């Protein structure tokens, strides 16, 4: 039960909340190379820090990313997602002009929808491993 060693505390609570988030690129275009994913991870780690959340694991492929986020109860997942997608889209499009060619009409990097799953019964270590193996060939 190593997962329980990472229980966080707030002023009036103790918590261990994790969410598995998946963001897909607009039109499911294959646009990410390793350099894009590396920078995306940096940006998302900074956004998570601003929300007092922890980006436990990050990985992705050419058209989507997976995140495992440890968050306090005061954070609304929808607001965190909005900020993660908005900031990363803006920054990546500014820093990598090659991405703009895929989004000349919509001017957005991410699709409007996302996946958010609560992580409860599955051990965090299993989800950690799942996300880590996302971009490895079968």
UniProtKB/TrEMBL annotation:
GO molecular function annotation: DNA binding; transposase activity
Listed under GO biological process in this entry are:
DNA transposition
| Domain Transposase IS200-like per the UniProt entry, residue ranges | 14-134
Gene3D superfamilies linked to this entry: Transposase IS200-like
Query: Pfam families per the record?
Result: Y1_Tnp
Q: What is this protein called?
A: Transposase
Source organism: Streptomyces oceani
Q: What is the lineage of its organism?
A: Bacteria, Bacillati, Actinomycetota, Actinomycetes, Kitasatosporales
């Amino acid at each position: 039960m190593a997962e329980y060693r990472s229980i966080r505390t707030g002023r009036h609570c103790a918590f261990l909340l994790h969410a598995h988030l998946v963001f897909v690129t607009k039109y499911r275009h294959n646009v990410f190379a390793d350099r894009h994913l590396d920078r995306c991870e940096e940006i998302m780690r900074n956004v998570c820090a601003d929300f007092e959340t922890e980006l436990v694991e990050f990985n992705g492929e050419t058209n989507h990313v997976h995140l495992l986020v440890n968050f306090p109860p005061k954070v609304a997942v929808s607001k965190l997602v909005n900020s993660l997608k908005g900031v990363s889209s803006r920054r990546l499009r500014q820093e990598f002009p090659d991405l703009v060619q895929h989004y000349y009409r919509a001017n957005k990097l991410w699709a409007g929808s996302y996946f958010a799953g609560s992580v409860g019964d599955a051990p965090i270590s299993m989800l950690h491993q799942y996300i880590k193996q996302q971009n490895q060939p079968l």
